[in-house]
Design goal:
Length: 557
């Protein structure tokens, strides 16, 4: 590997990380991430040349998948950063890990520092290579003058430090074998055992990553006090110093390029009058004009009407309000960024309370109000649904109708035609394939449904545990099975809520998350553990006020 090039960057990164690229990315004079990315690549081309990329790949090899358990070693990289950075590491949205896995990691840090240090280096090398390859892919497009969108540029800026981390991780890998052996006396062993007992008491099965990082910090402090375990491995100390600084920069950049939204009208003192159309005005930061924002009308803190989805044009007029809304001064408008670039952060804003009144003159034509209500209460789709239920019945009766065989006058010992007539009935049973009748639910209560996973279980009765995934922020949710609420308006906490689930063994079962609010940190996210006998599966579902995520569960024959 070309150590001179990579090591030169690592040397610059130690301390304050005075990288030219960092100055550009955090400089307010360059607010377009595409221009920032182009400037970084132009000023510092070596990491993004094909020659340099191939040299690294030939030395380290292509990236490999990091298992869930192995990924936990990355918690030892920067336990001082907190959960916000680690969310970017656990890309599948995982925000907790099994308690026993954390205890195993701490035990190895105390008693097998060489093994732990080496393993951390191996996983960090793979993680750094993954980041570098993501950044290199975008850099290749930029250098070839291919079109690069906003999201690609942000991805480049968030991942380009993988290039610097590669040499740091490789250095730890080479030097881990030189670490001193662990020296744990009886007194220290007792303190460690007591700490493990306290962790088990406080957390039953899963521990949030934020809490896991706190436990790692406290445990490492203990090892430093007794001069034992991983605290004695100098290469590990040097590694964490450099990696923590690089990770800190990545976290600050992630925050720098986050999108922001502020609704400037209506505001406190505004009055909307029904039936006049309303107007919404807003400003944004780091949100391209082609991005979309969805607006809702709230009465107190409850959503009572969707106002529409609009491109980020800063203004939307012609907003029609439901004419049945009562007068009041407790209305608010909330806007939410759709399809955010940063999957761990969604721009949203709720206005101060304002007033909605009906114009007295408008009371005269009540017929209009009645028509509107009738259109909402008796939607057109209701009739086709009833026809769809009735329509298959004559189709099943026609082929099997015995009158057809009699009318055909097949009585001249022509038994075979009678048998042949029965055959279409058998074929007819195969033609209306079951999956056609049992289509996946695509929407519910005006919200779209997206399926994130399909599972197969052995039993029609399974155990379900659910809890708040990530930060406990006041999420209120319902869980639906096949369109029926099995948990209604439940306030999520870290405490697991368990119950039995009875599945339909004859068809796929859809289990989806429905959000009643957005909490303090949208979207609403729930961890669901599905226990099927001795087997279990952990799933994370997200939901906001316009979409629901779901899982499809099939029972084995």
């Amino acid at each position: 590997m070309k150590k001179t090039t990579i090591l030169a960057f690592v040397t610059l990164s130690i301390g304050i990380l005075c990288l030219p690229s960092l100055a550009y990315s955090l400089n307010n004079s360059l607010n377009d991430p595409v221009l920032v990315a182009k400037k970084i690549i132009s000023d510092d081309p070596i990491p993004w040349t094909k020659t340099e990329y191939e040299a690294i790949i030939n030395t380290i090899g292509t990236k490999r998948t990091i298992s869930k358990i192995d990924k936990n070693y990355l918690l030892l990289q920067s336990p001082w950063l907190g959960v916000e950075y680690m969310q970017g590491v656990y890309m599948d949205g995982v925000n907790s890990i099994p308690v026993e896995q954390l205890l195993d990691l701490l035990n190895l840090a105390a008693n097998s520092p060489q093994q732990t240090s080496r393993k951390l280096a191996e996983i960090s090398l793979q993680r750094a290579l993954l980041e570098y390859e993501r950044a290199y892919s975008v850099a290749t497009d930029i250098k070839a003058d291919r079109a690069v969108n906003y999201e690609d540029a942000i991805s480049y800026l968030n991942n380009r430090f993988g290039y610097l981390k590669i040499e740091t991780a490789k250095k730890l890998l080479d030097e881990s074998s030189a670490a001193d052996k662990a020296v744990i006396d009886k007194k220290t062993s007792r303190r460690i055992a007591d700490r493990f007992r306290n962790i088990r008491k406080q957390y039953s099965e899963e521990i949030p990553i934020a809490s896991a990082l706190e436990e790692i910090k406290a445990f490492y402090t203990l090892l430093e006090e007794v001069v034992a375990g991983l605290a004695m491995v100098e290469p590990y100390t040097n590694f964490t110093q450099t990696i923590t600084e690089l990770n800190e920069v990545q976290l600050q950049e992630r925050k720098h390029w986050r999108s922001g939204l502020e609704i400037t009208y209506p505001t406190n003192g505004t009055m909307w009058t029904i039936p006049d159309p309303g107007t919404i005005e807003w400003t944004t930061s780091n949100l391209p004009s082609e991005k979309t924002i969805k607006f809702y009308l709230l009465k107190d803190n409850t959503v009572i009407q969707e106002l529409g989805t609009f491109k980020n044009t800063q203004i939307a007029g012609g907003i029609k309000l439901n004419r049945t809304l009562p007068n009041g001064n407790n209305y608010r408008i909330m806007g939410i960024e759709l399809f955010p670039t940063d999957k761990f952060y969604t721009a949203k804003f709720a206005t101060p309370y304002f007033t909605i009144n009906k114009r007295a003159v408008d009371i005269a034509p009540p017929s209009e109000d009645i028509v509107v209500v009738q259109e909402e209460i008796v939607p057109v789709p209701d009739e086709p649904q009833s026809e769809e239920i009735i329509a298959p019945l004559p189709q099943e009766e026609e082929p099997a109708a015995p009158e057809l065989e009699v009318v055909a006058e097949v009585e001249e010992q022509q038994v075979t035609p009678a048998i042949e007539i029965v055959e279409p009935v058998i074929v007819e049973e195969e033609i209306p394939e079951k999956p056609v009748e049992i289509e996946k639910r695509t929407d519910f209560d005006g919200r779209s449904i997206t399926y994130v996973k399909e599972l197969e279980v052995n039993n029609k009765i399974v155990q379900i545990n659910l809890w708040d995934h990530g930060r406990q922020d006041g999420d209120i949710v319902s869980i639906y099975l096949n369109g029926i609420a099995i948990v209604s308006e439940y306030n999520l906490t870290y405490q697991k809520k368990g119950f039995e689930l009875k599945l339909d063994p004859t068809e796929p079962n859809d289990l989806f998350l429905y959000a009643h609010n957005l909490g303090r940190f949208p979207p609403n996210t729930v961890s669901i553990e599905i226990i099927d006998g001795d087997n279990s599966e952990n799933i994370i579902l997200n939901s906001d006020l316009s979409r629901c995520e779901a899982v499809l569960i099939n029972v084995k024959d």
